[in-house]
Design brief:
By secondary structure, this protein is mainly β. Helices cover about 5% and strands about 50% of the residues. The protein is built from one helix and 17 strands. A twelve-stranded antiparallel barrel has the order 1-2-3-4-5-8-9-10-12-15-16-17. The longest helix is centred in the N-terminal third of the chain and has 14 residues. The chain is elongated, with a radius of gyration of 20 Å.
Amino acid sequence: MKNQYLKLLCILFAASIPVSLYAQGCSDAGFCTVNSLKPGNDHDSTSLYKNQFKAGFSFGKADHSISIYSPYLEYNREVNSKLSVSIKASALSQNGNGVNTFGLSDIYLTTNYRPSKNISFTLGTKIPLTDGNTAKNGQILPMDYQSSLGTWDMIVGIGYEIKKLQLAVALQQPLTQNNNQFIAENSPENSIWRGFQSTKDFKRSGDLLFRASYPFRITHQFRVTPSLLNIYHLSRDKFTTTSGIEQKIEGSQGLTMNGNLFLDYDINQNHALQLNLGAPFLTRDTRPDGLTRSFIATLEYNVRF
């Protein structure tokens, strides 16, 4: 037990080391927060309830001095001991540089099949609630101010547990592309848009996730779960220039490595709170999708019934 607490203290110390402000947070496109791909219970207790309702709120810091705020609602249903389904809906607000936006984001529909205690399979989709081409005052906004990537995505994943070590591997692949038409080159020299990446006819690659988590039961009600989250962007994203030439965006392919810390508190059998803190250790050079996060914190309320 003493060795476990020592490991935890080392992880917490490592998470406190300052990281680059030009960094990407939890996920490229949202699959790191899918219920079946997040760190789960450490099996010290079992739930007697088939339904879960979650309400959460995230705050984060992004590139270009932008702050993001994201509320979400989620419902999970255990169909039987092996099969569960989940639906999640979110929205997003971005504030910075004198620009304030708010819009609906995406709906996630997922199913999870667990043939045994140690392994599970996830299949799902992300449905966009906007086309990723929102304008304000006649100006098409860059991806940094879009509330959704605007793509329909496929999500597949596998979870495996070795004693208490929880491993997850997943793929999120766009099946469509958005309709964003932002062109930074058309902006005047003194415009705030000059530092943003052009994303006209943006074509975004898929992401591969690998997560390792280990829960520590501190008390009967309180659990701490450090997690290492790796996301590999599979190829370079593309955009079309004003002359109609499709170009690859250099530096957009590659690895993002994040540290997460989950703090779970069970108020009673039916009600629980979770605080999730995340920050990156390693990032891609270029992130044209506007999902850069130097820090993100999420508070979630969970009711079981």
